[in-house]
Write a structure and sequence with these properties.
Length: 213
């Protein structure tokens, strides 16, 4: 009788603990796993070195390129929100790069490494930290912030993150930049929501997986 009473008391205590702290406890990434962060950092550095040689360093502010930098620091610092933010941008970044850059005939090897390599590392990392329910909203706010920075400090001719001009090919669709920007922001938001939904299905939020030692 005493043992049953003790078990009931223990269960009650556990329920109280869950109510007091409903958040799932997460394990820290091992140092060995966090060293993966050096890979996207190298990808970013190689691509930046290319633009330092040929000019146009402002191109490093495109969301995909910044994604590698965020992924690097997210892994090295064991900061899951930063990893999730990077991955949700790297995921659509590769097909967008293939469609709007490679298809027209522009091929830069370091750009391929940055897009494909960054996404591969990001998918490995997201398996450990899991997806976030509201990452897509954070990613949209981050995009609008970076776009404004690009509007202030980058040359209009480069049109980094379409911060200055209507993207080539859409001039006949929109008569003014503000129209293009509004529709673009809605499309970006929808795309991020779809990416976030897909990541949540593949890597459901919840108990964080422990990285192998």
């Amino acid at each position: 009788m005493a043992s049953a009473s003790d078990a009931a008391a223990t269960d009650y205590d556990r329920q109280l603990e869950r109510k007091a702290d409903p958040r799932p406890r997460r394990g820290k990434l091992t140092v060995r796993f966090r060293l993966l962060g050096f890979l996207p950092l190298i990808f970013f550095a190689l691509h930046a070195r290319y633009y330092m040689k040929v000019g146009g360093l402002s191109h490093m502010l495109w969301m995909c390129n910044i994604g590698n930098l965020m992924l690097a620091f997210g892994l090295l610092l064991d900061w899951p929100p930063l990893i999730r933010l990077a991955v949700i941008w790297l995921l659509p970044g590769l097909p967008i790069w293939l469609l709007f850059v490679v298809t027209p005939g522009v091929w830069i090897p370091t750009s391929f490494v940055a897009h494909a390599g960054g996404l591969i590392v990001g998918l490995i990392a997201i398996q450990k930290v899991r997806a976030g329910r509201w990452t897509w909203i954070h990613a949209l706010v981050w995009y609008l912030f970076v776009q404004e920075i690009c509007r202030l400090i980058t040359p209009p001719i480069l049109n980094v993150n379409v911060a200055h001009l209507i993207y080539p090919g859409f001039e006949t669709t929109f008569s003014a930049y503000w129209q293009f920007w509004m529709v673009g922001a809605l499309v970006v938001g929808l795309g991020l929501w779809i990416a976030g939904f897909a990541l949540s299905k593949l890597f459901p939020p919840g108990q964080r997986a422990h990285a192998p030692a």
